[in-house]
Structures
1.
Amino acid sequence: MEGMATVEHLKDVVTAGVAAPSPDNNQPWRFRWEQDRLTILLDRSQALPSDVHHMFDLLSAGAVIENITIAATQHGRSTEIEPLWDPDDPTEFPQVAELRFSAGARPDPLAEAIPARCTNRLLYAKKPVPDQHWEHLRASVAAFPDVHLHITADRNQLKALARLVMLADRFRFEYPAFHAEIFRQLRFTAEEAERTRDGLDFRTLALPPGSKLLIKALRSWSLMSRLNRLGLSRALTWPSYGSVLRSGGAVLLSVPEFTFVHILAAGRAFERLWLAATQLGLALHPLGSLPIFIAHEEILDGVKLTPQHRQLARRLASRLREWAPALSSRVLMMVARLGYGPPCRVRSLRRPVESFFE
Ligand SMILES: Cc1cc2nc3c(=O)[nH]c(=O)nc-3n(C[C@H](O)[C@H](O)[C@H](O)COP(=O)(O)O)c2cc1C
């Protein structure tokens, strides 16, 4: 039988789809259901100024597709994916891919992890992750041969990576557009998070008590830029350093080229890895600054950066490749730290499923 057996099944798989992670919880997706086909589109109005040719939104779309594919197996459906992305599509809702469902699939055990997965920004225990868990994570992305997974659990290597992550995080605080993006996405109160059902609920950020007032004051770019001259942006990135050190290890996903098909595959692989980690009881925290600001330099030729920041981005890229020579001729898609952490106390919300349909 083609398609989905019932509307409930369709709603169920799309609900699993929108449980996927997205940058700053921007949920940049739309869906169209026509003649038994589910089309996934991007919603450009949700794009973040710091994104590079929709790289992060497409990684997120890949995660949505993977969740849908996994959830469909629970209804005995296998999914055929036809990529549709046209980088020159000028419309507000460019198509990403079309999914067709047909009978005949065994349930994918990762399905149970879809509602349990969360971004865990808390500090993790200093407990090593056993080798067989790393091997299990490696196996979870084996279906995507072009996506290379670099795993590190070595303390010295982690220290060096922590320094790179910290340097990359500075960009977020040193540009008016990226600074504005943080405040566009932040939801300072539970009511605000509940009303919009998107963005970053302040309570999920695991920041120290009292930091809300300070961060609210930093909404003013003129104050922020003045304080940056006194070293604020550097000080704000220290927690990134500490959190990487307090992890069982880190993973880096890379692809051979900056193409839509590779980015989508990386998004799918990343979601499978995250779900597999969730099943193993491992917490995961994506660290997006390093891939996105290297992409600003290497993919966008630094057009949005100052000469000093271009230099910093180039330094980051070359240090990263000294750190992991295997990444030399590849494009970094994502970095994440993993470990044994306390459970996510507050969950990020999603907009209602119906609101994503055209
Ligand atoms: C492409 C991408 C980049 C992300 N980058 C970061 C990041 O740099 N820092 C962070 O704390 N979370 C990052 N996240 C996690 C999102 O903020 C998170 O998925 C979103 O807020 C929804 O929360 P949830 O994952 O708990 O459902 C990223 C997610 C994606 C898909």
Note: Strands lie at 29-34, 37-42, 77-83, 95-103, 148-152, 186-187, 200-201, 249-255, 283-286, 331-339.
2.
Amino acid sequence: MKALLVPLVTVPLTLSAIGPPAHADTGWVWPLDPRPAVVEAFDPPVDDYGAGHRGVDLAGATGDDVRAVAPGTVTFVGSIAGVGVITIDHGDTDSTYQPVDATVSRGDAVDAGEQIGTLLDVGSHCAPDACLHLGRVLADEYADPLELLPSSSAVRLVTPFGPPPEAPATPIGPIDGDGRLAMPVEGPVTSPYGMRLHPILGIWKLHDGTDFGVGCGTPVRSAEDGTVTQTYADSAYGNRVIVDHGDIAGSAVTTSYNHLTSWAVSAGEAVRRGDVVGYVGSTGYSTACHLHFMVEVNGSTVDPETWL
Ligand SMILES: [Zn+2]
Ligand SMILES: [Zn+2]
């Protein structure tokens, strides 16, 4: 009988040791160390089913330690749609972490700053870069985690992935005699290439292509002769087509066409300047139909407008 009594005594003691959490919905600590840059802000959907960003993305590296933001109890460890997720209950509020390879188990008590796992790259919202998506759930509603994190109102003046790449100092050409790539669509530039300041949070981020405001379904044309190297669905860029234009005046030039509804070509296919490669859409991280057009020279993105 004594053996049975021991757990009856120790369970209440364990529970009282856990909490109530000292910081139910205040005073979180950063879940990555050193303090990470915020690469994508909280952008709640207008309704339960709408598009949006239900947390913040924090820059990190694959394998980084992921830490609990506050004392609490692990209530979920598992995989959701192939992405490793941890949830911690802090009392009034929950924190969620993904994609993470957990080192804790459901029911574990954790302290603020205690390691709960390591950062994965599969399922990153910042692919191909690694980042931690941190969520905060308060009374069954998503809330902005930055409200609880220290000094989160500071304006960041650098991107966590380094300074924006420089455009080539001299125009490279001639390309088909005019020294220019062809316009992939006819439409206004709605957002240029370059560092972009989030209007509310003051976070700088590189916009790595040129946005053209054109309607859904508009044909998208290859900017130059080349070979289609990839057509695939990316979580951020959506449906994309990448065309390799080979060597242009000593530089390796590729272009890509992003957020498409669908593509009109296959990998390995040769295309001519002006050939339709796909159709404008709003797949991936996109809120409305537009073309996100990218130019890469020797593996680095450049301002496409300097090439058009
Ligand atoms: Zn995210
Ligand atoms: Zn864009």
Note: Confidence is low (pLDDT under 50) at residues 1-24, 152-177.
